[in-house]
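To make this tangible, this section ends with a sequence with its C-alpha cells:
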Amino acid sequence: MSYLVDWNPATFGALEKRILLAEHRLHELDLFSDEGLVEILDRHPDAALGLSTMDRDSMTFEWRDGDRGGVSGETLLETVRRGQLWINCRQVMQHQPKLARLVDELYDELEAENPQFRAEDRTANLLISSPSAVVHYHVDMPVNMLWHLRGRKRVWVYPPFDTRVASLPVLEHVCCNKWSEEIPYDASYDTFAEVFDAEPGQLITWPQLTPHRVTNLDGLNVSLSTEHKNPAARRRLNVHQANYFLRNRLGLKPSSAEIDGWQAHAKQMLARGLRYAGKLLPNKPQPFAYPKSFVVDPNEPTGVRLLEGEAGQTAAPHLEYEIAGS
C-alpha cells in the first residue's frame, strides 16, 4: 500500500530541489498511538535516546541535553505531554524494526516514482515533544524529510543555499563538526522564510542544509524525521569541508559551494584526503556535543531537574563566535 496521498510527477520531481509540502497517511497507524509510542520508548536504548529542554521563548537560545533517569516509557511520555521536553529517538533503523520497515517502504516508493531520486545511507529519528517545545534555527547535514504525525507545529523554512541566512563559513563549521547544527540566527531572516503550520498527515521537506526552526503550537507533537544521502549530498558536505580547510588553514577565501564541475570534484578529493589523514592523528578531534545537565523528573513542572554545580551549567552557545572570513 502507498502512504502517500495525491502525489503526482511534479511532487516527486520536487524532492531535494525545492521546499515541498505534501500529504501522507502515516498518522493513521497504530504505531504512533500512545501505546505504540510507549512501546518504542521502552525498547529504545538510552545511548540512542536524546532528551533536551529549552526556554519557551523561541527567540532566546537555551538548549540543554539530559538523562532519562530510568523512568518508564509511559511515565516519560506523560512527562513530555505536560512538561518542556524534546525527545529524539535516534537510529530507529537499527533499534525499531517496525519503523525501519516503514522508512524503507517510504523511500522505496519515492525511488520507484522518481528514477533520479536516490536515498542511500538511510536513517530516521522519531521526535516526541511537549506542546510548547521549540527547536532553534539550525541545518541538517543529511537530506531531511519531516513527516508530521501528531499535534500542531509551526515550521519556518528559509531559502536554500542563500548566504543571507547561512553564510558559507557558518555551513563549513557545521559540516566539519566544529559546531552542532544550530547556527547564528537573526529575526530579520524571517522576512525570507516560508512558514507552515504543520498538521498531522503533512510532510515538509527541503534541500540539504536548508535552515529551519520550529515552534510547537499545541498538543503532544510527534514527527518522523527521515534522512538520507546520495552522491550529490555527500559531495556537498565534502565541498564545505574542503572550503573550511582552504579558509582556515590556507587563508584563502572560497566563495563557491557549487557541487558540479571540476572544482567541486577537486574539493571532494581534498576533503576525502583530509579525512584519511585525520584518521592517522593520535588525538582525533571530537565533534561538538552538549553536556548532560539535567535528569528527567516527573515531579518537576517542566519535567526536568537541573544538576547541581558545574555539571548543571548549560554549554555556552557557539552562535556568537566571530568567524574568520565571514
Summary: Residues 4-166+185-230+294-308 form a domain with the Jelly Rolls fold (CATH 2.60.120.650).
